[in-house]
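Pasting as-is:
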Amino acid sequence: MIQILWGFLFSFLAGCVFAPVIITLVKKLKAKQTILHYVEAHKQKQGTPTLGGLIFLLSTTVAFFVFSNGQAQIAIVALAVFLCYGLLGFLDDFIKVKTHKNLGLRAYQKIIGQVGIAVLIAWFVYENQYMGGSMFLPWGFTMVDIGWVIIPFVIFTFLAMTNSANLTDGLDGLAGGVSFVSLIGFTVIILLTKDFLLTMGYGIEYSQEMENLALLGACAGGGVLAFLCFNAYPAKIFMGDTGSLALGGLICALAVFCGQTLFLILICIMFVVSAISVCLQVGYYKLTKKRIFLMAPLHHHFEQKGVNETKIVAIYIIITIIASVIAVLLCLI
C-alpha cells in the first residue's frame, strides 16, 4: 500500500515537472487546438496548446517502472495498452495540428486502430491463467465464466470506453477530472479484488500482479492530477486524443484485468452518458430531422442552456465520486 501511495505522489510531482516543459515545447512546435466552428462558447480557446496527454503518459510510465516490483506481466500489458491508445490518439492530434483543422484520422482509420489493439487485449485476457473467461458480477464477489464470449465482450468494451472517454473531452478539466476519480476508484477495487481472491487460494504471484496493476492505476491518477493543475479552467493545455484515448484504454484495462469489467458502467457513468447522448442525438435526427439536445454530447447541451462550464465539470466529477463510492460498497456486500 505504501508503494502505491509513493507511486501516486511521484507521478504527480513528475507530471508537475513535465507539464511546463511539454507546454513550452508544444507552443514552439505550434501544436495548437483548432476549435470546431459550431462550438461558439469555445472561440476564445482557439490556439490553446494540445497534446497534453503526454504529461500523464510520461509521468505514469516513469513512476510505474520506478516503484513496480515482483510479478508484473498484467500491469505491463495494461501500460502497453495505455501507450498504444495514446499513440493512436497522438497520430490523430498530429494530423489535426499539421492541417490546422479539427479533423484528424478518418473514422474508419481510428476504428481499425482501436479494434486492432482491442483484439490483442481480448486474446491476452482469454489465454491468461488468472483471467480466461471469468469475470465478476457487480456486487459482492460473485464470479461467472462466460468462456470464449469474453473475447467479443472485451473488444466491444474497449471500443465503447475509448470512444466514450474521447467524447467526454470537451470542457476544461472534464475528461481529466472524471478519469482521475475513475482511476482511483478502480485502484481501490483492484486491491479489494486481490484480497478476496487471495482467500480463495490464489498465490503470491497473483497478489504481486494485482498490486502492480493497482500501482499503475495510482500512478496514472497522480499523473492526471498533475495534468489537471494545468488543464483546469482556463486551460493552459488540452489533453487531445493523445490523452482521452489513452485514459479510456487504461481505465478499461484496469477493470477488465481485475475481472470487474461491469463496474465500468457505474464508475464511468459520465462517459457512458456522453456516448448515449450522442447515439440518441444522431439516431433521432436521422429518423425525424429533429434534435433531442441543443448539442451533443450532453455537456455541450448544458452549455447551450447557459450552465457555467466549471459548474458542469464539478457536477460530472461529483457524480463520478458518488458512483465510485457505491461501486466500492457493492464490492464489500
